């Protein structure tokens, strides 16, 4: 669904000839990692809490893949896996690389074990079934049509500008409006919502952890959604929060905490991840004129361009897993 919304949104923007992209707030870079204890000491090829790495992590990734495919970071206290086969294998081996400890390097307090990204089977499978049941009862075509209409309006306002802040003028506007509409929530200032969401999942690079303001930002989002869930229970509507509250399979239904955390995941993923992906996609097209020209000439290449951008420099990076057993890999022993 995210790719479809991005494709529809960008299709509305492709006629703008000249633009400059702001990357502020777009990047959450890194490699898959698992917590463990130190087995080897080596120079730091990557510094996790670094603005330079955030801006351009790919030289560090290349060094990790080439020289340190299983690397213990002394400063971060985690193992980095950087080769495709290792990361792909860890992503599906939940019995060894568990999501129960959360999937953010610096996890949000109280979130682990309550969302699709922070659970393992069978709990994960149960949450997915109930969420899919809610989505199946929601008119997804209407959501896509709404996103396209919002994108066309935003693109129309951007047309003719020599330069612009793509995040503020387009991607955050489209994603915030679409997510709030999908959940049946009142529209609010996109810049304010995006700022709150980004703060809620950020890490303080000085303290190398989460600050009180960051935790307060997520708590504010959760409180807002908790109130919305309570209201939908009293007054059902044709929106996703209502569908989640009503979702039931063989007598099993989501708890209030699960609904609040699931909707918060939609808000965070929709506002931050999708907005960042769209902005990075725009940056790629701005920097790769030949690709931009090809997509303009042949709009049917849009889907392929989106998928390739996701592979090339996706905004969704640095996901964490927690080891449940000792693992030997590339001559290193990662201990649980």
What key attributes describe this structure?
8% strand; 336 residues; disordered N terminus; alpha+beta; Cytochrome p450; two-stranded antiparallel sheet; 13 helices; 5-stranded mixed β-sheet
What this model shows, in words?
This protein is α+β, with helices and mostly antiparallel strands and 336 residues long. The protein has one domain: Cytochrome p450. Helix content is 54%, strand content 8%. The protein has 13 helices and nine strands. The strands form three sheets. The chain has a five-stranded mixed β-sheet with strand order 2-3-1-7-4, with helices on one face. A hairpin with a 2-residue loop joins β5 and β6. α6 packs antiparallel against α7 and α8 crosses α11. It is globular, with a radius of gyration of 21 Å. The protein starts with a helix and ends with a strand.
Can you describe this structure in just a few lines?
The protein is an alpha+beta fold and 336 residues long. The chain is built from 13 helices and nine strands.
The share of residues in helices is: 40-55%
Please state the overall shape, judged from the principal axes of the Cα atoms: globular
Query: Class, according to the CATH hierarchy?
Result: Mainly Alpha
β-strand percent reads 5-15%
Q: Please tell me the overall pLDDT.
A: 85
